[in-house]
Amino acid sequence: MSISSIHPIATAIYYVSVLVFPMFTLNPLLQVCSLLGSFCYFLKIQSKIIKAKDFVFPCLLFLIMTFGNPLFSHNGATILFYMNSNPITAESLLYGLNVGVMLIAVLFWFRSFSVVMTEDKLLCVFGKLSPKLTLVISSSLRFVPLIKRRYETIAMAQKGLGLFSSDSWVDKIKSKLRVFNALIGCGIEKAVETGSSMRGRGYGLKNRTHYSVFRFTKQDAIIVAIILLTDVIMFYGLYSGAFAFEFYPSIVFTEFSANTIIALCAYALLSFLPLILEVKEALQWRYYRSKI
């Protein structure tokens, strides 16, 4: 069993849980744990199609947040140096570093979410609550890779017609605009066709019945119970101040206690739960194959 194979409601509960807690605390240990869990799971599910350009935007975002925050925020008691008569403080630098880690972790969590939560799973979770909103979300997730492939197809077709033969920047911009114009037209046409098709099937009607291939099993209940147990431990840790951490005016954090260690272990389990399930399933499959 893996996160991608459990019931969509259990998957949605997991992603809500793993994303909510880092937003309520500035504790660096929690942010690093979230980053490691999201990054390892992202590498696991996309190990065959991963590319170097997948890390360009996260690295740029991390550098901008880390070194950009001290340029705009001059709070903090530890002054490292002055730039244009403005103090650059260690607290501001570390705060930007912490926020950068949090944003990259959220980015990797959403990347894995887009792979795990397919259109049919989104329809299962939100179909009865808001059919129109579900249609917009699922169509948007589907149109992004579709438009990317169609852009490449149109560009190759126009290149075959000799429209990209010139090395002039003006001609290149005109060619790109022609591709973009054709792409917008195809996208609008596809959106209209999809909406008409869904309306013809009675999607969104009040008395329309819903069929789902997903069934909530005992294993799904166990996964949800583990997630909710870690949520309870984390909420208690937040309430008791186990994750208290302040950057301004100077770095202040609570000493490690039993509550802090238990809460960190609970969130570590929550962060690495998808990877643990994936590794468990791989080992189990290898064991069964060895018995054949």
The count of DSSP E runs of length 2 or more, i.e. the number of strands, is 4
Provide the residue-averaged pLDDT.
80
**Into which percentage range does the β-strand content fall?**
under 5%
Given the structure, what is the number of helices? 9
- Span between N and C termini? 21 Å
Radius of gyration: 24 Å
Question: What gross morphology would you assign?
Answer: globular
Which strands sit side by side, in order, in the main sheet? 1-2
Largest sheet: 2 strands, antiparallel
Class from secondary-structure proportions: mainly alpha
Order of helices and strands: HHHEEHHHHHEEH
Helix-strand layout with pairing:
Elements: H1 8-20, H2 28-45, H3 56-72, E1 79-83, E2 86-89, H4 90-116, H5 119-126, H6 131-160, H7 169-200, H8 218-240, E3 245-246, E4 252-253, H9 258-290
Antiparallel strand pairs: 1-2, 3-4
Helix pairs in contact: 1-8, 2-4, 2-9, 3-4, 5-6, 6-7, 8-9
